[in-house]
Protein backbone atom coordinates (compact mmCIF):
# COMPACT_ATOMS: atom_id res chain seq x y z
CA UNK A 1 0.00 0.00 0.00
CA UNK A 2 1.41 3.41 -1.00
CA UNK A 3 0.61 6.50 1.05
CA UNK A 4 0.31 9.83 -0.77
CA UNK A 5 0.15 13.24 0.88
CA UNK A 6 -1.81 15.77 -1.22
CA UNK A 7 -1.08 19.38 -0.25
CA UNK A 8 -3.07 22.27 -1.72
CA UNK A 9 -4.92 25.16 -0.12
CA UNK A 10 -7.85 24.53 -2.49
CA UNK A 11 -10.17 21.74 -1.33
CA UNK A 12 -11.48 21.45 -4.90
CA UNK A 13 -7.95 20.87 -6.21
CA UNK A 14 -7.11 18.35 -3.46
CA UNK A 15 -10.29 16.44 -4.24
CA UNK A 16 -9.54 16.59 -7.99
CA UNK A 17 -6.03 15.20 -7.52
CA UNK A 18 -7.32 12.33 -5.37
CA UNK A 19 -10.16 11.62 -7.83
CA UNK A 20 -7.61 11.30 -10.63
CA UNK A 21 -5.26 9.14 -8.59
CA UNK A 22 -7.95 6.70 -7.43
CA UNK A 23 -7.19 4.90 -10.71
CA UNK A 24 -3.94 3.72 -9.09
CA UNK A 25 -4.65 0.59 -7.07
CA UNK A 26 -3.17 0.17 -3.61
CA UNK A 27 -2.90 3.84 -2.64
CA UNK A 28 -4.16 5.79 0.34
CA UNK A 29 -4.45 9.56 0.57
CA UNK A 30 -3.98 12.13 3.28
CA UNK A 31 -4.83 15.79 2.72
CA UNK A 32 -3.17 18.94 3.97
CA UNK A 33 -4.55 22.39 3.26
CA UNK A 34 -1.53 24.44 4.35
CA UNK A 35 2.22 24.13 4.25
CA UNK A 36 2.35 24.03 8.03
CA UNK A 37 -0.19 21.21 8.12
CA UNK A 38 1.89 19.33 5.53
CA UNK A 39 5.02 19.62 7.68
CA UNK A 40 3.04 18.37 10.68
CA UNK A 41 1.68 15.37 8.77
CA UNK A 42 5.14 14.56 7.36
CA UNK A 43 6.52 14.60 10.89
CA UNK A 44 3.89 12.20 12.22
CA UNK A 45 3.45 9.62 9.45
CA UNK A 46 5.23 7.85 6.60
CA UNK A 47 4.41 8.81 3.01
CA UNK A 48 5.66 7.33 -0.25
CA UNK A 49 4.95 10.46 -2.30
CA UNK A 50 3.86 14.06 -1.83
CA UNK A 51 1.85 16.05 -4.37
CA UNK A 52 2.54 19.68 -3.45
CA UNK A 53 1.15 23.03 -4.59
CA UNK A 54 3.47 26.06 -4.53
CA UNK A 55 0.99 28.81 -3.71
CA UNK A 56 -0.27 28.54 -0.15
CA UNK A 57 -1.15 31.24 2.36
CA UNK A 58 1.11 30.31 5.29
CA UNK A 59 4.17 28.24 4.46
CA UNK A 60 4.66 28.07 0.68
CA UNK A 61 5.42 24.96 -1.33
CA UNK A 62 9.10 25.88 -1.82
CA UNK A 63 9.53 26.16 1.96
CA UNK A 64 7.82 22.80 2.50
CA UNK A 65 10.08 21.27 -0.15
CA UNK A 66 13.19 22.77 1.46
CA UNK A 67 12.06 21.42 4.86
CA UNK A 68 11.65 17.93 3.35
CA UNK A 69 15.09 17.96 1.73
CA UNK A 70 16.75 19.00 5.03
CA UNK A 71 15.30 16.03 6.96
CA UNK A 72 17.28 12.78 6.84
CA UNK A 73 14.10 10.72 7.12
CA UNK A 74 12.35 12.60 4.31
CA UNK A 75 15.23 13.50 2.00
CA UNK A 76 14.42 10.75 -0.55
CA UNK A 77 10.64 11.37 -0.55
CA UNK A 78 9.46 11.90 -4.14
CA UNK A 79 7.76 15.30 -4.44
CA UNK A 80 5.55 16.17 -7.41
CA UNK A 81 4.94 19.91 -7.66
CA UNK A 82 1.53 20.72 -9.15
CA UNK A 83 1.12 24.46 -9.69
CA UNK A 84 -0.43 27.23 -11.76
CA UNK A 85 3.08 28.61 -12.25
CA UNK A 86 3.79 26.80 -15.50
CA UNK A 87 6.66 28.98 -16.71
CA UNK A 88 10.16 27.60 -17.25
CA UNK A 89 11.68 29.78 -14.52
CA UNK A 90 9.31 28.36 -11.88
CA UNK A 91 9.95 24.83 -13.11
CA UNK A 92 13.71 25.26 -12.90
CA UNK A 93 13.43 26.88 -9.46
CA UNK A 94 11.47 24.00 -7.92
CA UNK A 95 13.67 21.37 -9.51
CA UNK A 96 16.77 23.15 -8.12
CA UNK A 97 15.06 23.23 -4.71
CA UNK A 98 14.72 19.44 -4.83
CA UNK A 99 11.39 18.64 -6.48
CA UNK A 100 11.34 15.26 -8.17
CA UNK A 101 8.87 16.32 -10.88
CA UNK A 102 6.80 19.32 -11.99
CA UNK A 103 3.31 19.44 -13.48
CA UNK A 104 1.53 22.65 -14.47
CA UNK A 105 -2.16 23.23 -13.81
CA UNK A 106 -4.45 22.61 -15.53
CA UNK A 107 -3.34 19.01 -16.02
CA UNK A 108 -5.09 16.01 -17.49
CA UNK A 109 -5.93 13.00 -15.33
CA UNK A 110 -3.66 10.93 -17.58
CA UNK A 111 -0.72 13.27 -16.99
CA UNK A 112 -0.90 13.21 -13.19
CA UNK A 113 -1.54 9.45 -13.12
CA UNK A 114 1.52 8.85 -15.32
CA UNK A 115 3.73 11.08 -13.13
CA UNK A 116 2.58 9.48 -9.89
CA UNK A 117 3.04 5.95 -11.24
CA UNK A 118 6.55 6.90 -12.37
CA UNK A 119 7.43 8.38 -8.97
CA UNK A 120 5.89 5.84 -6.60
CA UNK A 121 8.35 3.34 -5.22
CA UNK A 122 8.00 -0.16 -6.61
CA UNK A 123 5.84 -2.34 -4.32
CA UNK A 124 7.92 -4.67 -2.15
CA UNK A 125 6.23 -7.79 -3.52
CA UNK A 126 7.40 -7.01 -7.09
CA UNK A 127 11.02 -6.17 -6.22
CA UNK A 128 13.65 -8.71 -7.21
How would you describe this structure to a colleague?
This protein has 128 residues and is an alpha/beta fold. The protein has a single domain, classed as Response regulator (Rossmann fold, 3-Layer(aba) Sandwich), CATH 3.40.50. 41% of the residues lie in helices and 20% in strands. The chain has five helices and five strands, in the order E-H-E-H-E-H-E-H-E-H. The protein has a five-stranded parallel β-sheet with strand order 2-1-3-4-5, with helices on both faces. The C terminus is likely disordered.
- How many strands appear in the DSSP assignment? 5
Q: What top-tier CATH class fits best?
A: Alpha Beta
For the report, how would you describe the main beta sheet?
5 strands, parallel
> What's the helix-strand series?
EHEHEHEHEH
Radius of gyration: 14 Å
Tell me the overall shape: globular
The third-level CATH topology is Rossmann fold
What number is the mean pLDDT? 91
Order of strands across the widest beta sheet? 2-1-3-4-5
State which percent range the strand residues make up.
Answer: 15-25%
Question: How many distinct domains?
Answer: 1
- Counting DSSP H or I runs of 4 or more residues, the number of helices is 5
What is the distance, rounded to the nearest whole angstrom, between the alpha carbons of the first and last residues?
A: 18 Å
Structural class from helices and strands? alpha/beta
CATH superfamily: Response regulator
Contiguous uncertain segments of 5+ residues: 124-128
Name given to the CATH architecture: 3-Layer(aba) Sandwich
Amino acid sequence: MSAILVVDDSKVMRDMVVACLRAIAGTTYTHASTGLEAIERLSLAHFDLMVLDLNMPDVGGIEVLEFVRRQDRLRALPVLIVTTRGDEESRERVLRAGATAFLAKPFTPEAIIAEVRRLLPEPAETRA
